[in-house]
Amino acid sequence: MKLYYHPVSTTSRPIMLFARENGIDLKYQLVDLTTGEHMGEDYAAINPNRQVPVLEDGDFRLTESSAILKYLADKFDSPTYPKDLKKRARVNQVMDWLNSNLYKDWGYGLIYPQLFPHHKRPTEEIQAGCIDWARGKSRIWLEVLDQHIIGPENNYLCGNEITIADFFGAPMISLGETIKCDFSPYANISRWLGKMKSLNNWDAVNEIFYGMVKSLQEASFESI
User: Fold this and answer.
1) What kind of fold does domain 2-75 have according to CATH?
2) Residues 6+ apart with CB under 8 A from 209
3) Which helix (H) or strand (E) holds 57?
4) Strand pairing of 27-30 and 54-57?
5) CATH topology for 85-215?
6) Mind listing the pLDDT tens digit for each residue in 103-117?
7) Strands 60-63 and 54-57, how do they pair?
8) Per-residue pLDDT tens over the stretch 155-164
9) pTM for this entry
10) What are the phi and psi torsion angles at 39 (to 5°)?
11) Parallel, antiparallel, or unpaired: how do β-strands 60-63 and 27-30 relate?
């Protein structure tokens, strides 16, 4: 199996972490987002969305990080994607919530427009309004995540057992470290993220990501 990826990508890191934690042998094919390789016609033939990741398993090709995690978990019969109908539905719910609610405001509204020129809005006024709106919405989603999805009793996003929802969500939340987000007001998020960072392969998978975080230490951001 081959994974087209970039090591800083918020959607590639969950697949990399899950694969390495579960001993899944993937061939990694770098798609250099920094040079715009993903926008070229060669890569568009692989994924017309021009995004990473993409999984190839023989002649089967799959896009979307959430779908790839589910496919790998099923293929290797991982308990992180429960067979029980209600438990599986809860995992699906949390992964959909992360994608549909938190990530659109957190990633594409608050963080990416401050990090990447191609995400910046066309005027300073629109940029400021976008970030202000997304910061307020992100606070709401973080509160929901902290108090209602994790809560004081759960170790993980769907209870006390790790699931693919945790692999999907942890890199997404850690993205906030690029703009110096302070998670200390969110005790349950901080506790959960600490558990995910203690996984054996977290540091190796996120080495280049944290190199980027370090390179941004002197920059100023609108944060939480």
Assistant:
1) Glutaredoxin (3.40.30)
2) 7, 8, 13, 171, 174
3) strand 54-57
4) unpaired
5) Glutathione S-transferase Yfyf (Class Pi); Chain A, domain 2 (1.20.1050)
6) 999 999 999 999 999
7) antiparallel
8) 999 999 999 9
9) 0.96
10) -90, -5
11) unpaired
